[in-house]
Amino acid sequence: MKISGSQLVIEALKKEGVEIIFGYPGGSVIPLFDTLYSEPSIHVVLTRHEQAAVHAADGYARSTGKTGVCLVTSGPGATNTVTGLATANFDGVPLVVLTGQVFRSMIGNDAFQEADIVGISRPVTKHNYLVYDRKDLGRIFKEAFYIANSGRPGPVLIDLPKDVLLEQAEDEYPESVHIRGYNPTLVGHSRQIKRIAAAIKTAKKPLFFIGGGVNAAGAAPVFTKIVEKTNIPVIMSLMGIGSFYSGHPLNLGMVGMHGTYAANMAVQDCDLLIGIGTRFDDRVTGKLDTFAPHSKIIHIDIDPAAIARNVPVEIPVVGDAKQILEELLPLLEAPPAKEWIATVKNWKEEHPVTFKDDSEFLSPGKVITAISEQFPDAIIATEVGQNQMWAALYYSYSRPRTLITSGGLGTMGYGFPAAIGAQLGNPGKKVIDIAGDGSIQMNIQELATAVQEELPVIVAILNNGYLGMVRQWQELFNDKRYSSTCLMRKPSCPHHCTGPGKWCHHYTVDFVKLAEAYGAAGLRVTKPDEIEPALNEAGKSTKYPVFIDFIIEREANVWPMVAPGASLNQVLLGKEKE
Amino acid sequence: MQHIISLLVENHQGVLARIAGLFSGRGYNLESLTVGVTMDPTVSRITLVCGGDDVIIEQIKKQLNKLIDVIKVIDLTSQLAVDRELALVKINAKPNQRGEIFQVADVFRAKILDVGMNNMVLEITGTSSKINDALAILQPYSIQEVARSGLVAMERGKKFK
Ligand SMILES: Cc1ncc(C[n+]2csc(CCOP(=O)(O)OP(=O)(O)O)c2C)c(N)n1
Ligand SMILES: [Mg+2]
């Protein structure tokens, strides 16, 4: 029997276990939406912007481990996906993004709503395809799903000319896939794994450093066993958070620019650093020449190109973190590191991550600590900026895939749509977007999506009236020249404003009224004793989103901080500490 | 150091853009690139000449390997490879200069492809450095145009013992 290209696409999605698609229609994908109209097993979520569709699919994928799927139209629909693709590509998130394209005969003619999305998206996808030939359609889908969610996962884009979707052909979705240029290494080299065990056995100051790869590989349980067996302390990148229980005494927290004192000191003093599923990115290492100066480095990663790129590596192992750690576990013995463990625990006690507990102003630390206590098992999405770092530092994570954040690209506007995707993938869980007042406005239109889908997502806006992270840099490194970072500024303000004063105007927008205008609930919290009641109130919703506008201290900073270009042991603890 | 990297790639449209884009996007230095189909019509061979220290070359090879359409990456930077480039050179040649130019051509085993009233076109084949040498020698005759093919290279067979 002959079927249309659209029918084969839907067949492919079903065979790949796709239950939900985030999309936005347009002329060139009408055939696909038409086929979806009569497909009861796939829920189509209509976002209010294609960028948000990709972030939502990304939040769905990060929180479930399944491949997120998007469907958008050609031209502007396709170009709107670029930021979403780049965000997912940077953090290794499995997505399949379908874009419409003009008729094959029109490609290259500057046809209405034509865009060379394969060319545009090439550097921000793991792979992409333009389907030229109807007979390749099934194979391409099979390959795309395989590529997206194997090896180091990533987004794959398929560009679908409208006439390919309409063309009838006699075909079935293939059962198997073979790509001669793509064979990710999963099993680690046994000899290297034995070398790791030997190095750990004699290390006096060993330190585990985990990244997003541990989350992605599902390696968290075996990693926890390894820590319990060896008693080696653990630090993590932003992306590694969640893979290891935050409350564990050996968890020293996040390392790097806004890492904890203990984590940064430990890196600078350890004699064996075992990096697992991390890129050793520049936000982590600080000044490269002085990173981990006394340490041998072991590096386990699925991506050969990530190994030894930024730091010299003594024992590299390419492969899947879970498989490698499972092979490593029985070989391990606890190292002679009693003194070291005492030292790191001491660092942790000496300078824990704290916040100013003020009865008058809201401190962001207090807000997030309250969220952590009230909703201990939540999925936390974040926007980007100070809010993101505070969410990383103050919430206590206990399970993998519970911090959904744009690490590599640092995309403002990511958190809210990602939270929507995460909520759809985890209907029983509390999902909270910890937001900045700047970032939330970058995809605020998704309130409509959340309301229409009846999602009880909580958005906790840490409203400082500033693009706070940039303002913090201006305060510390540019003499408080708050250039274009105040969100309350009007022409009557002093030209060289260096901080809040009696001239400050009302905030634009009123987030409470805005939420209400969309049919969501809006709450405002201005004093510490209002935090708990507001969270209680927000927690009651099962069917509608809640915005909480936390009016926080305007010039609160993120501490600790290692200044850009400094070594990690030069940790600034902030004036709150002085 | 200069490296010669040979790639076997899927013979699809877009593959060349992926490779060129990798180099420009990551700021790697690419000196020449040649493409041609192999005996298997679904596979093309690309020969790249690129520069960089060992760490960069290692990264380049790993990044090329990551491309789905790249089937194989072979570093031919060693004595174990043969490489050749072809250049077409158009030079000013007054009738009284032709004799000299024929001699130079002979030294470099260049072929004369065309002789015109006031110019000639030579074809020179050899290693890139031989072509550089030939161009330097021909410089005094005033070179009008040069078209270089870029390098192609191949591993040698196993040596007889
Ligand atoms: C799309 C995008 N544009 C610009 C930036 C640069 N940037 C990083 S943090 C930040 C400020 C974010 O402000 P807000 O959302 O209010 O968060 P805060 O730092 O105040 O918590 C900006 C502008 C970015 N990361 N992403
Ligand atoms: Mg802000």
3D structure, described in words:
The complex is a heterodimer of chains A (578) and B (161). Chain A is of the alpha/beta class and 578 residues long. Chain B has helices spanning 15-25, 54-66, 98-107, 128-138, and strands spanning 2-10, 29-37, 43-51, 70-75, 81-92, 111-115, 119-126, 143-148, 152-155. In chain B, β2 and β3 form a beta hairpin. The mean pLDDT of chain B is 94. With 161 residues, chain B is an alpha+beta fold. The A-B interface holds A 118-119, 122-123, 126-127, 130, 132, 147, 179-182, 303-305, 308-309 and B 9-10, 13-14, 17-18, 21, 25, 55, 58-59, 62-63, 65-72. The structure holds thiamine diphosphate (TPP) and magnesium ion (MG). Magnesium ion binds next to loops of chain A.
In short:
The complex is a heterodimer of chains A (578) and B (161). Chain A contains 22 helices and 20 strands. Chain A is of the alpha/beta class.
Measured between the Cα atoms of the first and last residue of chain A, the distance is 77 Å
Query: Ranges of chain A with pLDDT <50 over ≥5 residues?
Result: none
Annotated CATH topology of the largest domain in chain A: Rossmann fold
* Biggest sheet descriptor of chain A: 6 strands, parallel
Q: In one word, what is the shape of chain A?
A: globular
CATH superfamily of the largest domain in chain B: ACT domain
Which secondary-structure class do the elements of chain A indicate? Answer: alpha/beta
Taking all Cα atoms into account, the compactness measure Rg of chain B is 19 Å
Number of domains of chain B: 2
Helix content of chain B: 25-40%
Query: What structural class is derived from the secondary structure elements of chain B?
Result: alpha+beta
Summarize the helix and strand pattern of chain B as letters: EHEEHEEHEEHEE
Task: Just name the CATH architecture of the largest domain in chain A.
Answer: 3-Layer(aba) Sandwich
Residue-averaged pLDDT of chain A: 97
